[in-house]
Specification:
The chain is α/β, with parallel strands linked by helices. It is built from 10 helices and 12 strands. The chain starts with a strand and ends with a helix.
Length: about 325
């Protein structure tokens, strides 16, 4: 089969973490089977990128273990540094500031990644191969630890997007600037994750496209500078935001037209639950989300083939030979 891959990546984490900064619940687990069934209906296989609180939820473990057993998806690792053991404070209130893992000292960064890897491998009795950083924050140190622990795929890069103006620790410099990173899959350079190299870790950037032409982006950014605002170019993601079906299709079309052999979708697990996110607050919002998902998946079924991230790694390797 020569169709490009459709990669479904779900940041699998607690309920409405945009709002819940002290007590984390995991009720969204109950809403995941519906999405899994939709994926299977169209022959797609989600990668459930799982963080600490979800890996501690028996109902989620039962759900995800069944997905793995049936070969209908993958569990990968996702790490929120502020509440993932070992818990060593970086700020005066880590739950408030939600510092990036890349702001922690080397030893603690490694210990947190090791802990989460061991926890997931023990819970699911399978090797962790795929990963996405919490809050999209990634660097060369983080990549080195993933390689050391045998990960094959990272999907933290958001091309055309900078997180510099999204604060973590007050003493930090914000998140990672991916503005000029590649938009295609590539093996990372161990010394510079923004370029191709000869490491064993495959980077699979998110599918993100500019909303406007280069000229319009320059015009808008110039106007923002005159108003004293710092904003990057406007972009569309392959990510539901409510009523953006046409924009998601456009992202997929442009990504494939630019030569990519995959398109990558993302959502948070809590977004499948009413009031689990700022975007989908009511049951009616969830039903509209599923209407868009049905239309998108039906459209993509004709153009792509479903793969987990680990399966895409094998597909990418085979195409290199």
């Amino acid at each position: 089969m020569n169709k490009p891959a459709f990669l479904i990546t779900i940041d699998t984490e607690g309920d409405n973490l945009w709002r819940n900064r002290q007590t984390i619940t995991t009720r969204n687990t109950l809403f995941l089977p519906r999405f899994q069934a939709l994926c299977e209906k169209y022959g797609f296989k989600p990668t459930w990128l799982t963080n600490y609180e979800m890996a501690s939820d028996p109902a989620y473990i039962e759900f995800a273990a069944d997905v793995i057993k049936r070969g209908q998806g993958e569990v990968g690792m996702h790490l929120h540094a502020w509440n993932s053991p070992p818990e060593t404070p970086l700020t005066d209130d880590d739950w408030r500031w939600q510092p990036y893992l890349i702001e922690y000292p080397d030893a603690l960064l490694r210990d947190k990644v090791r802990f989460m890897t061991d926890l997931l491998e023990e819970k699911f009795q399978t090797k962790m191969l795929s990963h996405r950083a919490g809050r999209w924050a990634f660097d060369e140190r983080y990549a080195a630890v993933l390689r050391e622990l045998g990960y094959q795929v990272d999907c933290s890069v958001t091309p055309r997007v900078s997180w510099r103006n999204s604060p973590g620790a007050p003493q930090g410099q914000g998140g990672t600037d991916y503005s000029h990173f590649p938009q295609h899959a590539y093996f990372l350079d161990p010394q510079d994750i923004s370029r191709s190299g000869n490491s064993t870790l495959l980077e699979v950037p998110m599918s993100i496209q500019y909303k406007h032409s280069a000229f319009m982006n320059q015009l808008k950014q110039g106007y923002d500078r005159l108003r004293g605002k710092k904003r990057g170019p406007s972009v569309n993601w392959l990510r539901p935001s409510g009523g953006n079906l046409a924009a998601m299709k456009r992202v997929a079309e442009l990504s494939l037209a630019q030569g990519n052999d995959y398109v990558e979708f993302m959502l948070h697990s809590s977004e499948f639950m009413p009031d689990g996110s700022p975007t989908f607050k009511t049951e009616a919002d969830i039903e509209r989300l599923y209407e868009d998902l049905e239309a998108l998946f039906s459209w993509l079924q004709q153009r792509t083939q479903g793969m987990t991230l680990a399966e895409y790694y094998q597909y990418f390797q085979a195409r290199l030979k």
